[in-house]
Amino acid sequence: MSQQPEQAEQLIRELGSLTDQARTIGRSRITGVPLLGWGIAFGVGYAALDLLDGAARLVVVLLAWAVGMLGSWYPVRHAIRTGSEGRIRWGWVVVLGASPFLVAAAQPSSWIYTALFLGGLWGLAMCLYAVATEDVPFVVASIAVVVLAALAAGQDLAPPLALFGVTTALPLLVLGVRRTLVGSRHV
Q1: For residue 118, which of 145, 90, 158, 157 has the smallest C-alpha distance?
Q2: Rounded distance, CA 153 to CA 148, Å?
C-alpha cells in the first residue's frame, strides 16, 4: 500500500516529461520548416527590394515569397494535427487582408517604410501566434522581427530593407534549423 503514492508520483513525473517531449516534437514539426521558409523569404526578399531593380527585383521577391508560402503550407500535411490549423490559416488571411488597409491608414512616407511596416506587422502576427501557443523561443525570434523593423527604419548606415531582411532572417533561420533537426530525429 505504501508504494501507491510513490507510483502515482512517478507516473505524474513521467506524464509531465511525455507532455514536454510531445510539445517539443509538435512545435518542431509544425514550425520548423515554415521558419526556414520565412527566414529565407525575409532575408532574400527584403534584400532584393533594396538591392535589385526592375524585373529582377520582382522575380526574386516573388520567388522568396513562394518559398515562404511553400514552407508554411507543405509541412502541415505531414505535421501533428492540433485542431487549430484552420483557425490559424484564417488568422493569417485576416492579417494579410488587413495589411493594405493598415498601410493606407498609416500612410508611410515611402515604399521603404511601407515594407518595414508590413514586415513589423507580420512579425507581430507571428509573435501573437507564439504567445498563444506558449512558444517562448518563437516569441523571441518573432519579436526580434518587430524590433528590427524599427531599428532598420531609424538608421542610415546600411540600406534599411537589406539590413532588416538579413537581421530578421537570422533568428528565424536559427530556430527553424534547430526545430527541423529536432523534428527529423523523431520521424
Answers
A1: 145
A2: 8
**Dist. CA 66–CA 184, nearest whole Å:** 23
Distance of CA 37 to the CA centre of its chain: 9
Residues written for the chain: 187
pLDDT in tens, 12-48: 776 666 555 555 555 556 778 889 999 999 999 999 9
Would you put residue 134 in left (φ > 0), alpha (ψ -120 to 50) or beta? left
Q: CB of 177 within 8 A of CB of 161?
A: no
The pTM of this model reads: 0.80
Cell readout for 125 is: 502576427
Burial 150-176 (b: 16+ CB within 10 A, else e): eebbeeeeebbbbbbbbbbbebbbebb
Q: Find, among 110, 107, 119, the residue nearest to 168 by Cα.
A: 119
Question: How buried is residue 9: exposed, middle or buried, by Cβ count under 10 Å (0-12/13-18/19+)?
Answer: exposed
